[in-house]
């Protein structure tokens, strides 16, 4: 493959990968990973389980943001999720993390 053809493809792949990496980094920084993992249930559900449950649900981003802010329980088991106010994870960061989670296959 010629470099002039390959370069745009590589740049496009990097642009797609960067938001995902950034959103995963935000989840780590906000300590979401203390209770969640991408591929396995921990205290809370795996992010892939969340993505599968809400796939195709247009209201999912808002509902999940409310769940993160308010906390709750009973959907994924007996252990309740603690509320996470904006000083723990800002609104834009929360939106980015939720978009990343919902995009997981």
UniProtKB/TrEMBL annotation:
Keyword annotations of the record: Electron transport, Heme, Iron, Metal-binding, Signal, Transport
Pfam families given in the database record: Cytochrom_C
Entry annotated with the keyword Ribonucleoprotein: no
PROSITE patterns: CYTC
First and last residue of the signal peptide: 1-22
Residues engaged in binding heme c: 32, 36, 81
Post-translational modification: Binds 1 heme c group covalently per subunit.
GO molecular function ontology, one term from the record: heme binding
InterPro entries: Cyt_c-like_dom, Cyt_c-like_dom_sf, Cyt_c_ID
Domain (Cytochrome c) ranges: 18-105
Protein name (Swiss-Prot/TrEMBL): C-type cytochrome
């Amino acid at each position: 493959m010629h470099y002039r053809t390959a370069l745009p493809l590589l740049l496009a792949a990097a642009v797609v990968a960067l938001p995902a990496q950034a959103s995963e980094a935000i989840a780590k920084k906000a300590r979401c990973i203390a209770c969640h993992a991408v591929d396995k249930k921990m205290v809370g559900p795996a992010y892939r389980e969340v993505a599968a449950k809400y796939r195709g649900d247009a209201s999912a981003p808002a509902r999940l943001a409310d769940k993160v802010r308010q906390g709750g329980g009973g959907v994924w088991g007996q252990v309740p999720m603690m509320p996470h106010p904006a000083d723990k994870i800002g609104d834009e960061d929360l939106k980015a993390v939720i978009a990343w989670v919902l995009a997981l296959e």
